[in-house]
């Protein structure tokens, strides 16, 4: 691998903030990564990035930055209705989803138009419109950055949770334990639509589609996301900045009694999920701007860099939003992006 020194990272994070990597290298091959980690991983653990779509940098990165960029996707085996598909970590996520649909496969259509690379998808168990990566993930092949040894993680080994996984829990600041290189998915040739979350049904009805295909659902999701979420290529943002809080059922019931309009959804046993965007709107942050940073006018979960903001300014805005939500509701919002 060829390292570049003092490499600018503004185009490698979706907020577009200026930061520098003291050392930076593209990783396109598993063997190169395994050899480098075996030789240097214990002494100088790397900082791993993919497309930078879920990253907020508030400082320069002193650790060696490795961009995991191996490309490729293939069908591993095809047994009638069930198909095992493998994608390399550097495949852009949305084009990969569209490729699976072009193969007549369903399972990922609700995750259309999510930015980033395939390799980052399992880290936070990305999800949208009632579907998560954990629904279709078969296994993950990763490299131990301390030893260079490959390791296969079965679905159960990934310990998926709400925007969480074993991989996310093994990140410590600038130290990443596992570099995901390949992800396998169980997809289907028998389409089972998931239409009960968000406005997918409404979007399909407006298009006069009564018996949707997987591609129809993908197009509906793309239309909804495009109408509500700003394009990171136009204005710096990492999509939804905060997770929807998951509360104990009795706490949620008490809050509902105080705030009858609070949207709530069933979660795990004795748990209730609360809409973080609604909480932020109620504190008056939606559409508000402070200097170069602000909360998007169409979606209160999205923090934006209007141009020239530092990562520290974005983080200060996030903390101000958190403080107001705690003050009004007693709920601490947890960020989705990785914050350095």
Offer a few descriptive terms.
single chain; 340 residues; alpha+beta; Uridine Diphospho-n-acetylenolpyruvylglucosamine Reductase, domain 2; Uridine Diphospho-n-acetylenolpyruvylglucosamine Reductase, domain 3; Uridine Diphospho-n-acetylenolpyruvylglucosamine Reductase, domain 1; 3 domains; four-stranded mixed β-sheet; 8 helices; 22 strands
What does this molecule look like?
- The structure is a single chain.
- This protein is 24% helix and 28% strand.
- It is an alpha+beta fold and 340 residues long.
- The protein folds into three domains: 4-68, 2-Layer Sandwich (Uridine Diphospho-n-acetylenolpyruvylglucosamine Reductase, domain 2), CATH 3.30.43.10; 73-188, Uridine Diphospho-n-acetylenolpyruvylglucosamine Reductase, domain 3 (2-Layer Sandwich); 236-245 and 276-339, Uridine Diphospho-n-acetylenolpyruvylglucosamine Reductase, domain 1, CATH 3.90.78.10.
- Strands 6-7-14-10-11 form a five-stranded antiparallel β-sheet. A four-stranded mixed β-sheet has the order 1-2-5-3. A four-stranded antiparallel β-sheet has the order 15-21-20-19, covered by helices on one side.
- The longest helix has 19 residues, at 311-329.
- It starts with a strand and ends with a strand.
- The mean pLDDT is 95.
């Amino acid at each position: 691998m060829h390292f570049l020194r003092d490499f600018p990272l503004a185009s490698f994070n979706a907020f577009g903030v200026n930061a520098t990597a003291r050392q930076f290298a593209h990783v396109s091959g598993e063997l190169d990564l395994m050899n480098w980690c075996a030789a240097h991983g214990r002494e100088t653990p790397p900082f791993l990035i993919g497309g930078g779509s879920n990253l907020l940098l508030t400082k320069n990165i002193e650790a060696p930055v490795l961009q995991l960029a191996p490309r490729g996707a293939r069908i591993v085996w095809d047994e009638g209705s069930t198909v095992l598909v493998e994608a390399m970590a550097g495949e852009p996520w949305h084009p990969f989803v569209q490729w699976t649909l072009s193969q007549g496969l369903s399972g990922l259509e609700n995750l259309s138009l999510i930015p980033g690379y395939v390799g980052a998808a399992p880290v936070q168990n990305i999800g949208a419109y009632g579907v998560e990566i954990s629904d279709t993930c078969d296994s993950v092949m990763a490299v131990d950055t301390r030893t260079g040894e490959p390791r296969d993680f079965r679905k159960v080994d990934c310990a998926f949770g709400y925007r969480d996984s074993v991989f996310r829990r093994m990140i410590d600041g600038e130290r990443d334990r596992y570099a995901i290189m390949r992800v396998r998915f169980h997809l289907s040739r028998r389409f089972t639509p998931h239409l009960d979350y968000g406005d997918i049904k409404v979007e399909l009805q407006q298009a006069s589609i009564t018996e949707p295909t997987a591609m129809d659902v993908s197009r509906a999701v793309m239309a909804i996301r495009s109408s509500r979420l700003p394009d990171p290529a136009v204005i710096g943002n990492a999509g939804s900045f905060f997770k929807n809080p998951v509360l104990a059922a009795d706490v949620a019931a008490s809050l509902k009694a105080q705030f009858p309009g609070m949207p709530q959804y069933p979660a795990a046993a004795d748990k209730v999920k609360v809409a973080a965007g609604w909480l932020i709107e109620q504190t008056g942050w939606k559409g508000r701007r402070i200097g170069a940073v602000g909360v998007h006018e169409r979606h209160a979960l999205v923090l934006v860099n209007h141009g020239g903001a530092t990562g520290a300014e974005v983080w200060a805005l996030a903390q101000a939003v958190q403080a107001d939500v705690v003050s009004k509701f007693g709920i601490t919002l947890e960020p989705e992006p990785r914050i350095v």
